[in-house]
């Protein structure tokens, strides 16, 4: 039984305004957002009028510690955790990015992906700009600085920036001594506002505020610009479409189960998905088994709806969340360390329903099916909490190549054969949308339909009219 | 909601004989045993007739890596992971210990605790011996070497060693080019034999063999001396009492749920405990919620027996399994990072049964009860998978002071008040014993009864007659 | 006896073209230039058409090692070592800087200092540019990229860059797959060309080629643009003044004694300075003692000319070249570790002439004079290999504040009293110029005269006519 | 021009008693002794009655820092630096060694080598003792502990220890709360007593006290046992031969030039050796050039006596004192980094006398001769400050194999040809002894004569009668 390295990853951002010191809140907030990115971490804190930057490759507690933050007393700051990519220029790309401008320093932390990054970069290079990093965030921070140089008005600069950049972006921005939070007009990646003790914050997920003994207040709206002050948030609106494009994968997989994302508790939606799967693809199996930890809430829902008992039939090593793997060890590591181990008493002689959040290549789920069979499962029925993934994501998830998706060229029945299960059921798009409880027009389902909320070269646009309408 | 730093910890040992290289198996085996000890790790590998030692403070993958093991080709070796103690002399105490003797090198890895360590140490010091470490293991390895010096017979030496040392010991020993595994006559801490591909191994838990694509064969018996060869194990027996003293805590808390310990799958016993709790302390609550990850199997059992739905009502940060904490951060870390976060939709307005494996001081469970109340729980009923802990462990668990046990001076009803729950139910000793399915005389229940299987100064002995009988 | 932390520091640059791999030459070349900068190190190597960057804070061998370079096979690359400054933004400023431009990547390594950096930065910020670092080098690399975007002609771009930037600059530049070396029109900081085995290189000092079994060929001229190819250098000239402004401190202190700088062997000039000092400030002392290692060649010259014996009367700890000092230890470290220890038999009862390269604040030399007295010196006569430093350097040496120079407000006689010596003699400016053997008009003596070869706001310009003449 | 990795290395020890804190003095004292050993460092400090140990592989400032020592207030402690050996078991062998005994803790730091270590080890192993390290120091500390167990009298224990161990030993010992220093009866390795501020210390070299603003008092005598108290030293004598066996290499190479060793300033003796060489092997050369840094004082003496000018004709990279070298780089590192670079103006067309302290294999000096020739030297005359090394050292220097000594099988004339010099002159044994100024009978000249002061199996003993006489 094997669990693959994640193909689906995002980032996390945070911004804090606290009359006491912001650094501590940033540190703990990023640790709470660690599941959104494990490659790098950084904070930029307003300290005596300057943006004091601490960042590096590694987990939050490896990069930021009290040795480095103990002397910081600034009341404002932003932070970032970044997902795991590999590349020689990784260090330069670590966020926040801080630039010196005519009107002071500007720091930016970005979760999302610009679809016009390449053309913007080319345009700017043609105008003589050179880029020190390969990240979208440098485009954002420098366009912003360019805007600011003309009029020194942060909100106007942000609005003009929003006219230029297209794609998904949840931003925490510090301009001089002011903090802003911005969410793209489609509200693709999450961003929310909360209270902390005597101050205020923005963060990718509401769980930050729960853990900091604070309080989740509300989501940042699509196209909203928030200024974060210690007296509370101020808000401006950038013209935005009525229908949003929230990434359905946040609920299905990314976000922590205890987070509220766009008004919906993640855990609840996963349970509903499980229940819906029980309706759409019923079985008369003996036991419902999740792939830990991603399939647990789905499995509980399926169990509740079907009345079939839930069991923790697969165990994983909880000390493998993150390890720097030596290249030569990699293959064996993948084999041995990520292995899921069956609880024979839960599996043997039984008809098992196996629940997970999604299938990308199908190789992992196949191995898990086989492990269950080797442990004596009479039947293995696979139920998946998202519809088949058939198309790339251009808006913040690291799934780029159509060929890697088993569902892009195979029917469900073919996939069922490939993964050697007795039956395979994906939730329907309609079912998923129902479980989320939002209008389909307010979701980004690009990877499921191949139609995207934003114009992407070579891809189809959904709701063309909507795009033209504002 | 808060989760305390663990008070209950053990160690893990492994021994491997593989015609190919042992180092890889030791590395992966120790990673699989990582949950048994996170402070230090080490291996001793037979390499060209010498014992090649790699060890240090840290997690397995931080200490042992392919840079250091890539050139190792020896077919035999032993390894150790050690639990988290703190002390200035920590580095010297890291295992395995290797000594040079008249008849070659001797390496020892030890899980357990000697009850006559102090008197042995004093005796030997009086004879002019000096100790370089403060560990029981130095006593063991040097007594063994002393024995060997007389006659060079490993098995005879081990038997004579067993005549001298008293307490719990599961040992992996390499003497020259031979590997032995030894379990104390009472079989207090676990130790088992398994196959790996083309070789054989011993390990603290059977899960090692599952994950290495090998096969669990059987437990090492109390008083058994195993020689591990690539053709399989050879066995000698040291005179041992018929009744054993298996530590009940291995099933209740320590061992991985997917391990077989002394013939019983840990997961099954935890479920049975949960079911028994439902019998002994029934409720008519709305939902059964575990403290993750330790209470999960108990909760599933309670749910199954009671028919009350199971829900994952508490979430934890899965990136906190181990962090080096700066002293000044410690307090806040404990507060923020270890916090459990409630899923409101599972808790609000409900009568909740909260399941965990044990209560030591009671401070953590109290915080969790309060978190549930703050999330709107109508009632909170606590059910605990072990009887009240009232006495210290002298046989390998780091629970030494009576004063730290809330149950040593308070009644269950008093504890119920202290932790602010609506009701509190511990499993009974009788119930626990039934769930484990072994005769009470074969279990060590010292921390529950204050009566120990072995004579300990100032404590009562259980089964005095038994001790005298062999 | 005490030796102060250095106040006078520079940087080192290198560029290599070798048909085999450039990385090894860069690594070893930077280690040979290590005395020019110990804070950070980096290389950028052309690898499959891309600029592969390795850099960080630390000594060369700590940052660049065969683990990281072993796979590099590119034939071209540049490198940099940076002197010790301290600041929170240190990491971002580590060189080389690499940018992505319309016409590929551009890497820059810079030794020197721009006098119009602030105004350029402001101009560019006013035009909307934002800066990710606080270094002059970002100004250079981005101006260069801006130029390139228009016409893609590297040499034309470099020439246009040279029209904009003012100050000292010895540059190694990689533009796409081509390497250039540039020296400012005044040839302020050193730069030379040499052969290495089957290739060619540029480096701050000729000693690089000696140690790499190569051959020093010639200095890069002021205003010269070199393209480094594996077939040898090509050259272009930027209009430059006939008279140069070589920094006299390179010969007096910075460069290694075995380097040729602008046609003169450093060791020879230091000996000549010592001889000139013996003429200008003779003594009838018993022994000539250098402050190791900086005053050794000067002392040998003084001894030779005066006939007074040379003795190594002061010893230093050779394991203190560089240590990361914990802040709290710093004061005591400075006291204890940097202490020079007298050889009593060389000092006691003698009249001693103490030689060093320069005096900045005077605190160190005072301590050393006292140590000699405590060791029984009858008289202590101090002779200094540079004239009094009275004004800041704006062209690459970290001496910025007039107040720190004891000679800016005190006469030689007053300084003699302050440092408690029996006599004090600085070499005269005229004498120094004679020893260097170049026309005074070809030297930068700004820190000695307060008149600078380049217009600096608030300071006097020397040779105003010269500036206007080309 | 090449400089070989050192074949000749020793260790350094220190003991401090200061009413304030000892830890700081130990730290700085070891840094001052760093030239005696760069592989590992450690201190053991008496802290609340316990021996608090800090040690590890690396330079002093890498192992011991204020983070670790800041809280230490104990007034007593010992320390050790160890020379560079390579081996897998290196970590265990790091000193001080600390053992737990019947009468408290015992810490030992040892400079020297026991000639009966193997037989002692075998004897003790036959008695059933096992050794955790491969160091002589474990033999010493455990024999001492064994003695102590009988009567708890430290001085008596040390005397009995001295009856058993044979060889060279300068020891710093902490027994419970008392510190002792011991020097073997032949006083082979150095050890001296000094004052520090308000306390007292012992150290391998007097330079420690100079640098700590203290005062060298006297050498510890051969066979002397010193107890170090804050009121000054107490002394006991172990029966010792009248004639000593001071290692001549301490003056020729090991000790710092500014140290007093057994009443003689090292620098003075090196100068005298140079002068004596000028008498025994005169030349009419043009310049005297040392190999830096080891040959400098010898060269100054030769210059003074001969009247031929002294010149620093060879430069070395001062950033290579110590580097962890990756195995694959090692060969090239040795080639490039350790290279000495000639100052052509000092060499070209001249007849050069090259001075160094000793020749072991002859490979390095040959390369240096060739470099001088390549730089245009007309003639190269080599003068060596020690007589030919023909036999191993068994008493503390890492020169063990006769075959590695070029002089063990070749005549001086043959070596002259091998190293391609025009003439080669070693100082005579008689000359060396005169320069040192002690009776030949008080020196260990074993490596020069093959006759040792102590019985060594397979070797000749010098002064047999002397040995029998006490």
Provide structural commentary.
- 4 copies of one chain form a homotetramer.
- The first copy, chain A, is of the alpha+beta class and 470 residues long.
- Chain A has 2 domains: 12-240, Aminohydrolase, N-terminal nucleophile (Ntn) domain (Glutamine Phosphoribosylpyrophosphate, subunit 1, domain 1, 4-Layer Sandwich), CATH 3.60.20.10; 265-317 and 324-449, Rossmann fold, CATH 3.40.50.2020.
- In chain A, 31% of the residues lie in helices and 26% in strands.
- Chain A is built from 18 helices and 25 strands.
- Chain A has a 7-stranded antiparallel beta sheet with strand order 3-2-4-1-10-9-11. A 6-stranded antiparallel beta sheet of chain A has the order 5-6-7-8-12-13. Chain A has a 4-stranded parallel beta sheet with strand order 17-20-21-22, with helices on both faces.
- In chain A, strand 2 (40-47) and strand 3 (50-57) form a beta hairpin.
- In chain A, helix 10 runs antiparallel to helix 16 (429-436).
- The longest helix of chain A has 16 residues, at 136-151.
- The N and C termini of chain A lie far apart (50 Å).
- In chain A, 60% of the residues are buried.
- At the A-B interface, helix 1, helix 8, helix 11, helix 12 and strand 19 of A face helix 1, helix 8, helix 11, helix 12 and strand 19 of B.
